[in-house]
Structures are given as structure tokens and as C-alpha cells.
TrEMBL record:
Keywords: Transcription, Transcription regulation. It comes from Cellulosimicrobium funkei. It holds the Pfam family GAF. SUPFAM superfamilies: GAF domain-like. It comes from the Bacteria. This is ANTAR domain-containing protein. Residues 145-206 form the ANTAR domain. GO terms for molecular function: RNA binding.
Length: 225
């Protein structure tokens, strides 16, 4: 698969532990780029992918300011049209996004989707917050290990700017199920907003994502040879 497996495992466990028939997805935001990291169901994954591609939705807002976003009624939500439309297509009627800070530059969100109206008891929200903190701790450890591996092997230093950027594009294509052009737009937009190079954005993403067999962006672009 090429993407670190632990967010997928954490999403599956969250769905089991939290119960209430919830479907769970985990999104990570790093270097200004949001990617879906793991999901307990395909339906939850598609909602998070729609949100990541639009860069708008409850989990994006939650990760930006560190506050949970409770959506008692998806139908009545405002400002997240693409995400809300995907939720409606999947049959979700209520949702909550619970963020957790990993580092100053990295955040995660535990996104819970419900097919039943507004099941969010105080106890459930407290449990969701505790689980989001667990996810953040796991991601933080993964990043520390990635930095250590990089300093030992010099892996990214040996990559050209073009290769590093294209590998990051492939990772975004895989996690967000988007085209190469959409993935490049995400990288370029993040670089402009942060006033850094696409290479710096790419390295940040590659340290957080284990990319073994990410798709070749050229395969998605008939105009490239």
C-alpha cells in the first residue's frame, strides 16, 4: 500500500472502541497539506478525501484552530459544501471532528461519522478526545523515527527537488484518491501559503508518510512522457 499502516489500524480500533455504529476516519495536516491517513470504512474515507481535496470542512477547521467541530445535522451545516454533499451521498447525518496537536506544524483530526441523528453524548465526546490524543502521540513517534532515519541514511538529501516533489505528489494521490494535477496543486498551494519551496513541503510530507509504492504521477497525466 505504501502508506504507514498505523493510522488505518487506529481508525479501525476507534470504531470498535467508541461504538454507537460510528464510522471513523483520521486526517493529518502537515506543511499546510491535509491527507486522509486511515479510515474504518470506505464511506468515511470518501468524506475525508472530499474534505482534503477542497481544503474545507469540519476537520480542516478543527486542525486549524485546535477546537472540535460538532455537526449535529450535516444537512444544516454551512460552508463545507463538498464535504456535506459527500456525507449525504454516503448516508451520514451527523458528525464530529476532534483535533489533536502533534507538533507546531502537524495536527491530526479524528473524524466520527454517524448515520443516526446527533449521538454525541458528553461521555462519547470525552472518549473521542482521549482517542485523538492517542493518535497524535502515535503520529509524533512516527515523525521522530522518520527524522532519525533520515539523519542516519541521508535519504532525502540524496533526492533531487523534482524526485522529492513527485514522490510527495504520488503520496497525496494515493491518500486523497486524486489526480496528479490536483496533488501538484495542493503542494504548490501549500508552498505559496507558507512561503517555502515545494521541496520543503514534499520532504515534510514524506517524513510523515511511508511511501513505498506510491503511484507514478506521470501515469495519471497523458501529457507527460
Amino acid at each position: 500500500m505504501g502508506i504507514a499502516s498505523f493510522p488505518q489500524e487506529l481508525a479501525d480500533r476507534a470504531a470498535t472502541i467508541l461504538g454507537h455504529g460510528l464510522e471513523v476516519s483520521i486526517t493529518m495536516r502537515q506543511a499546510g497539506v491535509s491527507v486522509r491517513a486511515g479510515s474504518s470504512t470506505d464511506a468515511a474515507a470518501r468524506c475525508d478525501q472530499a474534505e482534503a481535496l477542497d481544503d474545507a470542512g469540519p476537520c480542516i477547521d478543527a486542525m486549524e484552530d485546535g477546537g472540535s467541530r460538532l455537526v449535529p445535522s450535516v444537512e444544516e451545516s454551512v460552508g463545507w459544501e463538498r464535504w456535506a454533499r459527500q456525507c449525504a451521498e454516503e448516508g451520514f447525518v451527523s458528525s464530529v471532528a476532534v483535533p489533536a496537536i502533534v507538533t507546531a506544524d502537524v495536527a491530526v483530526a479524528l473524524n466520527l461519522y454517524s448515520r443516526a441523528p446527533d449521538p454525541w453524548t458528553p461521555e462519547l465526546l470525552t472518549a473521542a478526545d482521549a482517542y485523538a490524543q492517542l493518535v497524535a502521540s502515535a503520529v509524533g513517534l512516527r515523525l521522530e523515527l522518520a527524522v532519525l532515519e533520515d539523519s542516519t541514511a541521508g535519504f532525502y538529501r540524496d533526492m533531487s527537488d523534482a524526485v522529492a516533489t513527485e514522490r510527495a505528489v504520488g503520496a497525496i494521490m494515493q491518500t486523497n484518491q486524486c489526480s496528479a494535477d490536483e496533488a501538484r496543486r495542493i503542494v504548490d498551494s501549500a508552498a505559496r501559503h507558507r512561503n517555502v519551496s515545494p521541496r520543503e513541503v514534499a520532504e515534510s510530507l514524506l517524513r510523515a508518510l511511508v511511501v513505498e509504492d506510491a503511484p507514478d504521477p506521470a501515469d495519471d497525466d497523458p501529457g507527460r512522457s
